[in-house]
């Protein structure tokens, strides 16, 4: 039992439509504030990426474990 398609909406075809454009006047953009926001976002993003890179690096104060096989002479350090 098939039914025939019947259009249920009263929309007009594209060719029958009329368009109009209205201008919306807005306040000018605060460029100083926008620049501050962009700078803060950039600094925040670079800080996050720097923190991620530093997290995988060994710390500067890293010491070899006491039982390591590298001697003082081999490591280049003298007392």
Q: How many β-strands, per DSSP?
A: 0
Termini separation: 97 Å
Q: Spans with pLDDT under 50 lasting ≥5 residues?
A: none
Proportion of β residues?
under 5%
Name the shape in a single word: elongated
Structural class: mainly alpha
Radius of gyration: 34 Å
Largest sheet: none
Number of helices: 2
Mean pLDDT: 79
The level of helicity is 25-40%
What is the N-to-C order of secondary-structure elements (H for helix, E for strand)?
Answer: HH
Overview of this structure, please?
This protein is mainly alpha-helical and 79 residues long. It has a domain at 30-57. Helices cover 38% and strands 0% of the residues. It has helices at 31-56, 72-75. The longest helix is centred in the middle third of the chain and has 26 residues, at 31-56. It is elongated, with a radius of gyration of 34 Å.
Short recap of the structure:
With 79 residues, this protein is mainly alpha-helical. It has 2 helices and no strands.
What are the defining features of this structure?
about 40% helix; single chain; about 80 residues; 2 helices; mainly alpha; about 0% strand
Question: What is the strand and helix layout of this fold?
Answer:
Elements: H1 31-56, H2 72-75
